[in-house]
Every structure is written in C-alpha cells, then in structure tokens.
Design goal:
There is one protein chain. β2 (113-118), α5 (125-140) and β3 (144-148) form a beta-alpha-beta unit. It is globular, with a radius of gyration of 19 Å. It has helices at residues 5-17, 27-34, 38-52, 96-108, 125-140, 154-162, 179-182, 188-200, 217-228, 259-272, 289-298, 317-326, and strands at residues 57-67, 113-118, 144-148, 167-169, 204-206, 209-211, 236-241, 277-280, 302-304, 330-331. Strands 1, 2, 3, 4, 5, 6, 7, 8, 9 and 10 form a ten-stranded parallel sheet that branches. 39% of the residues lie in helices and 13% in strands. The chain is built from twelve helices and ten strands. α2 (27-34) packs across α9 and α4 runs parallel beside α5 (125-140). The chain has one domain (23-330): Alpha-Beta Barrel (TIM Barrel). By secondary structure, the chain is α/β, with parallel strands linked by helices. Residues 16-21 and 340-354 have low confidence and may be disordered. It binds S-adenosylmethionine, 6-(5-methyl-2-OXO-imidazolidin-4-yl)-hexanoic acid and iron/sulfur cluster. Residues 77-78, 80, 117, 119-120, 148, 150, 170-171, 173, 210, 240, 242-243, 245, 282, 310 line the site of S-adenosylmethionine. Residues 63, 79, 117, 148, 169, 171, 208, 238, 240, 243, 281-282, 309-312 line the site of 6-(5-methyl-2-OXO-imidazolidin-4-yl)-hexanoic acid.
Length: 354
C-alpha cells in the first residue's frame, strides 16, 4: 500500500471533524505529504480545498501600519526593530480618524478585512484605548477587523474582544529549532502563550510564518505542524515569503524558497489545516503570476491587497484582479469561511483569455 494512504486518511479525518481538534500531526507524516510527487500533492490539496471552500474565490485583506518602527524586539527579519539600521523612521500611534479614513479607502477598493499592525513588543494600556476605538470604527464600516500588536496580557485580550475584534495576528514565524536564530528577545513559547490567551478570549487566530530566512525545509514543515496541532488550527494562516530588508541580520543568511518548494508548503498547509484560510502574504511582488497561480491551485485562498504591506511593497490591486480574472477566479465579495457545502456549487466562471 502507498505509505501516504494512511496519512491522507488522516487529512480526511481532519475534514470530517471540520476543525481538526482531535488530530495531531507528526513532522514525519507531514514530510511524507510534502515529498509526494507534485501532481499527487496538488490533487490531494485541491480535493480538500474544494470540500471546504469555493476554490475560485480569494479573500482580500488590507494592511495598515498604525504605529511604525522603534520596536524593542530584535526580530532579525524586521525593518521596524531598533536593533537594526534599516532606515525605517519611528512614528507615533496614528489618530483614530486617520485610521478610519484608510479603512474607508480599503473598503471602497473592495477589501473585506482591515488589518492594523503596530511595532510593539506589547501594547500599553493607554494605546489600547485608541486601538479599541479603531476596531469599533472599522467594524462599523462593515469590515472584518484584525490587529497585530505583539504579546498580550489576559485583560488586554478581554478589552480587544469587547471592542469586537474578529482576528488577532500573531505569527510563530519559523520552527522551534530555528526560532533562537531569528529572535532572542522573545521565545516561541511566548508566542504560543499569547495565541492561547487570544483563543480563550474567543477571538479568531491568524498565525503563520515566514519562509526564506535561512531555515531548512524541515524547519518550514515543523512550523506548519505546530500550527496544525493547535487544536483547532488558526482560522487564518499567513505564509510570508521574506521581503528582503537591507540592514537586518537575516539579510546575511536569507535564501528564498524556490517556487516549487513554496507551492509544496502551501499545499501542505492546505492538507494539514483544510478548514483554515491560507493567505499568500508578504513577498508576492517578487513572485511571478505563474508562481502565484500555482499557490492558488495548491490551496491558498487569501491575499493582502493594496500597494503597501507594513513598510514594504505589494502588487497593485489591478494586477491582482487581472491575474484572478485570467484564472477564472475572483476576489470574494465577503468574508471567506470554511463550508463543506460549497463543494459542487462552483460558479460557472469561464477564464478570460486575453
Ligand atoms: N509587532 C507585532 C508582532 O511581531 O507580532 C506585529 C507586527 S509584525 C511586523 C507582524 C509580522 O510581520 C511578523 O510576525 C512577521 O511574521 C511579519 N514580517 C515582518 N517583517 C517581515 C518581512 N520582512 N517579510 C515578511 N514578513 C515579515
Ligand atoms: C503577516 O503574516 N504578514 C503581514 C501581517 N501578517 C501583519 C506583515 C507582512 C510584513 C511585511 C514586511 C513589511 O511590510 O514591513
Ligand atoms: Fe517588532 Fe513585530 Fe518587527 Fe518583531 S516583527 S521587531 S515585534 S514589529
């Protein structure tokens, strides 16, 4: 019998439980899936993808850096750490009204989620007052809300939940083994503790990582296994290709993933976390249309739209719309949710051929 048949059975069990609470993956099982012949890997990923989602739809979120630079953490990949000379200027927390004006623009451009990022180790209570008003204001515009503010205390989670926060983004970034090589002012367990508090607070998790920081393929797989075993996995899983930042320590050891290696990782994320939205996040402007197209075929179903991420660039929205149209796909008009019922309910969108 094909040794991966049992593993596929496990992936089906994740689907059956619809959230994966009871299924724990091992790194060896995940590696077996990752190493499948690409046509087989993509077939399996697509099969699970369409059980949960309309495979022609991609969720769109827009990011805004509400407090840039001056961060005391030493994350070796980040433009915003005070430990590295990257040329990023530190700013104060934005005014609530200015943030809401940006959210309105994002909504007019078609985004369904607005994500606000702050370069903090953890928020001060006074700053959280403003962030809560931003969340309330963005929600009132009819957008889903996401914030990424660093580590949280239980009371801060409660306040964010009371403000109506939908998602908290907090990436684990890499494997446990590689973590000390990318940050020393915090640990993987610090990250997992915040994720656990956020989940207990009833807020949905957005957690993923970065590829291309000198890690091995096994590190990338180990990172996905940690996320998949959170029981249930994060509702949203961003996979970032490291956006090179001159002046950071990661610059000396960065090695971008090949397109095929990245696509395999996306497919593995889809197999290990079939009910999660997998976001093709930073690094898209360095990817060809064909590379991105393969990621969508492997199960990625979310992107950031808008020309900037936090401090780096992102493809123009028109370019994204053109790629999706060429694939007979579209930006989802509302939040994307796992729903086995969409299988067999594909719109008869035909690809544009120009
Ligand atoms: N300070 C908060 C924190 O670290 O959680 C929130 C902001 S931080 C910039 C959010 C995430 O952006 C990081 O966890 C990391 O995964 C991602 N990130 C930062 N710099 C990046 C880069 N150059 N390329 C890709 N992803 C990056
Ligand atoms: C995530 O996983 N990627 C986004 C969001 N979550 C906060 C951040 C990407 C940052 C890319 C580097 C920059 O623009 O500074
Ligand atoms: Fe600070 Fe977040 Fe950048 Fe780390 S990733 S330096 S915590 S802004």
């Amino acid at each position: 019998m094909n040794p991966t048949t049992d593993i596929q059975g496990k992936a089906e069990a994740v689907t059956a439980s619809n959230a994966g609470q009871s299924v724990a993956w091992t790194e060896a099982e995940a590696r077996d899936l990752y190493d499948l012949p690409l046509p087989e890997l993509l077939f399996r990923a697509q099969t699970l993808h369409r059980r949960h989602f309309d495979p022609t739809e991609v969720e769109t979120a827009t990011l805004l850096s509400i407090k840039t630079g001056g961060c005391p953490e030493d994350c070796g990949y980040c433009s915003q750490s005070t430990h590295h000379k990257t040329g990023v200027k530190a700013t104060k927390l934005m005014e609530v009204d200015s943030v809401l004006a940006e959210a309105r623009k994002a909504r007019e451009a078609g985004a369904t989620r607005f994500c606000m990022g702050a370069a903090w180790r953890s928020p001060k209570d006074r700053d959280l007052d403003s962030v809560c008003r931003m969340i309330e204001g963005v929600r009132a515009l009819g957008l889903e809300t996401c914030v990424t503010l660093g580590m949280l205390a239980p009371d801060q989670v409660r306040r964010l939940g009371d403000a109506g926060l939908d998602y908290y983004n907090h990436n684990i970034d890499t494997s446990r083994a590689h973590y000390p090589r990318i940050a020393t002012t915090r640990t993987m367990d610090d990250r997992l503790d915040t994720l656990s508090l956020v989940r207990k607070g009833g807020i949905k998790l957005c957690s993923g990582g970065i590829v291309g920081m000198g890690e091995t393929v096994d590190d990338r797989i180990a990172m996905l296994v940690i996320l998949a075993n959170l029981a249930p996995p994060p509702e949203s899983v961003p996979l970032n290709m490291w956006n090179a930042i001159p002046g950071t320590p990661v610059m000396d050891r960065a090695e971008p993933a090949t397109p095929i290696a990245f696509v395999r990782l996306v497919a593995l994320a889809r197999l290990l976390m079939p009910a999660s939205v997998v976001r093709l996040s930073a690094g898209r402007h360095a990817m060809s249309d064909e590379w991105q197209a393969l990621c969508f075929l492997a199960g990625a179903n979310s992107i950031f739209t808008g020309d900037t991420l936090l401090t780096t660039g992102n493809p123009q929205r028109a370019q994204d719309a053109a790629l999706l149209a060429a694939m007979g796909m579209r930006m989802a008009p509302g939040p994307v949710r796992s729903n086995a019922a969409v299988a067999g309910n594909l719109r008869s969108a035909s690809p544009s051929t120009d």
